[in-house]
Amino acid sequence: MTGELDINTQHHYLKAMGIDLWVSRDAEIKPKPSWQSLESAVAGCRRCDLCQTRQQTVFGRGHQQAPLMLIGEAPGAEEDRQGLPFVGRAGQLLDKMIAAVGLSHDRVYIANLLKCRPPSNRDPKPEEMNECQAYLQAQIQLLKPKLILALGRVSAHHLLKVDTPLSRLRGREYRLGERPLWVSYHPAYLLRNPADKARAYEDWLKIADLLKSL
Fold first, then answer.
1. What 3-state class would DSSP assign to 169?
2. What's the rounded Cα separation, in Å, for the pair 165 and 168?
3. How does DSSP assign 128-166, residue by residue?
4. Which stretches within the chain are classed as H helix?
5. What's phi and psi for 142, nearest 5 deg?
6. CA angle, 189 as apex, 183 and 191 as ends, to 5°?
7. Could you tell me if 72 and 155 are in contact, meaning their C-beta atoms sit under 8 angstroms apart?
8. What is the pTM of this model?
9. Which residues are bridge partners to 114 per DSSP?
10. For residue range 129-150, what is the model confidence (pLDDT) as tens digits?
């Protein structure tokens, strides 16, 4: 399971966003722009109706050469206000989890499937995630993370193209293209279900150990 867009579809989406491309001899799409130009493309995006209700887009935060990429589902109200992912209560818990396993923040980059907040914090719609997917793919290609961690059911299901319960997805390695991908709980879920924090901590210990070995 890869969760990757096929080459022609990804090419179409990126060109539609105004992102120039070059294609290597092995036909792998490479994003030509810098992080800054990609973020500008996201800021001006009007590919779905979420552009009408957002305060601003939420691109990502963290070190742009980090070995670990965290992928959540969508911005919430505080993220929409500040323009950064995971800065509300869930983000505060996420930062504590990162620190608890001894990871410094220069080893982590955080993004979401969606770059705009869905109204009333509802789950992202499939068509919204599909429209936004090429932006995330471009972020992955620019970052080149050694490991990806999907946070929560929505993120895991979309990236892996499955509907398996999250409890059964945890604890094993998947692939997102050429990159290893693991699955754990979304911090917002843990705020509602604190009994699962111990299981999440086990996931994070595994991620920290894997990063040391890569």
1. helix
2. 6
3. HHHHHHHHHHHHHHHH--SEEEEESHHHHHHHHT----H
4. 7-16, 35-43, 77-82, 89-100, 126-143, 153-160, 166-169, 187-192, 197-213
5. -70, -40
6. 130
7. yes
8. 0.86
9. none
10. 999 999 999 999 999 999 999 9
